[in-house]
Every structure is written in structure tokens, then in C-alpha cells.
Specification:
Blueprint (H helix, E strand, L loop, with lengths): L3 H11 L4 H8 L3 H8 L7 H8 L11 H6 L1
């Protein structure tokens, strides 16, 4: 399974954008993109979703029961 960091970094590279240009297009600070790509754990979900929407995705809460079933 691909991590959030791997997903964002690979998709950003596929569209041939630097972190700076990608952050600008996503409407977030450069530090947000860097933290996501570095796999930092303490991230603002709204900012993460702003980045993910660039690829047509979004994160949301998942019930623990759903996680335990997999």
C-alpha cells in the first residue's frame, strides 16, 4: 500500500511540478507540501485535502471497525 507521502510525491512528479509550483497551484504553503512528502504525522487535514484535491482525492474519518476488518 502506498503511503500519503509516496502518493503525493509521485503524482506531483508525474505532472512535472516542483514542490514550490505545486504548493502554489494547490493554494497551500510550501511547508505543507514538504511535510506531507516527508511523511510527517502532525498534519492539518484541511491542508492535506487541499493538496489531495489536485488529484481528485480526499481523506476522511474511517470507523475503527472498518480498519480492523482488513
Amino acid at each position: 500500500m502506498e503511503t500519503l507521502a509516496q502518493f503525493v510525491k509521485s503524482r506531483r512528479k508525474n505532472v512535472k511540478l516542483t514542490q514550490e509550483k505545486f504548493a502554489e497551484k494547490a493554494g497551500v504553503a510550501l511547508t505543507v507540501v514538504r511535510k506531507i512528502e516527508q511523511g510527517k504525522e502532525n498534519l492539518n487535514l484541511d491542508k492535506v485535502n487541499q493538496v489531495l484535491r489536485m488529484f481528485g482525492h480526499e481523506l476522511g474519518p474511517v470507523a475503527m471497525k472498518s480498519i480492523e476488518e482488513n
